[in-house]
Amino acid sequence: MFDFAPTDGADKPVLYADLLSAARAVTDGESDGIANMANVAALLWHMLPDLNWAGFYRLVGDALVLGPFQGKAACIRIALGKGVCGTAAATRTTILVEDVHAFPGHIACDTASASEIVVPVMADGRLVAVLDLDSPVRARFDAEDRAGLEALVAAIGKTLRHD
Ligand code: SME
């Protein structure tokens, strides 16, 4: 059984260090990328405050396809270059959006979303997925979230391969 509790009151670097340890623990030795995405989505959902969606879109062929997540049912397919997810995937760079209503082409899967961060997941130099977090709080994500999430996917990206 895995039982990771949120680190109440901790600052973000501590929180992301705890999250990284937990993600390593649940993915260590497991080769099924879908199972690993599911467990990491659950960790993100339970350990990070103020989220209304946390999960993955997988690169399948030349499109992003909905992967394991927590939150409301979401759009299934996103073309590369479209929305925040497709932009992060096409550019292989993290996209941090303080106000989704100001992002041209933002795809609204949950009207509660106010801010969003999408981080590309790479393995052996190839894009395998994007990690997407949404929040009902405007400007919920900052440079510390970006650094923490980029370190997370850099550490466990290989365990998220799904083909
Ligand atoms: N908002 C995303 C779509 C995915 S949902 O947030 C779960 C986008 O613009 O790509």
Task: Write a short abstract of this structure.
The protein has 163 residues and is an alpha+beta fold. Helices cover 33% and strands 26% of the residues.
Which molecules other than protein and nucleic acid are bound? methionine sulfoxide
Helix fraction, binned, reads 25-40%
Model regions low in confidence, pLDDT < 50 over at least 5 residues: none
**Beta-sheet strand percentage?**
25-35%
The span between the termini is 27 Å
Strand order of the largest sheet: 3-2-1-6-5-4
Q: Give the SSE string.
A: HHEEEHEEEH
Shape: globular
Could you report the average pLDDT, rounded to the nearest whole number? Answer: 95
Based on CA atoms alone, the radius of gyration comes out at 14 Å
Keywords, separated by commas or semicolons:
alpha+beta, Beta-Lactamase, 4 helices, binds methionine sulfoxide
Describe the structure.
By secondary structure, the chain is an alpha+beta fold. It has a single domain (12-160), classed as GAF domain (Beta-Lactamase, 2-Layer Sandwich). 33% of the residues lie in helices and 26% in strands. The protein has four helices and six strands, in the order ααβββαβββα. It has helices spanning 12-27, 33-47, 83-91, 143-156, and strands at residues 53-60, 63-71, 77-79, 95-97, 115-123, 126-135. It has a six-stranded antiparallel sheet with strand order 3-2-1-6-5-4, sandwiched between helices. A hairpin with a 5-residue loop joins strand 2 and strand 3 (77-79). Helix 1 (12-27) runs antiparallel to helix 2 and helix 1 (12-27) packs parallel to helix 4 (143-156). The longest helix is centred in the first third of the chain and has 16 residues, at 12-27. It is globular, with a radius of gyration of 14 Å. The model has no long low-confidence stretch (mean pLDDT 95). It binds methionine sulfoxide. Residues 53, 74-75, 78, 83-86, 106-107, 109, 113, 116, 132, 134 line the site of methionine sulfoxide. Methionine sulfoxide binds at residues 53, 74-75, 78, 83-86, 106-107, 109, 113, 116, 132, 134.
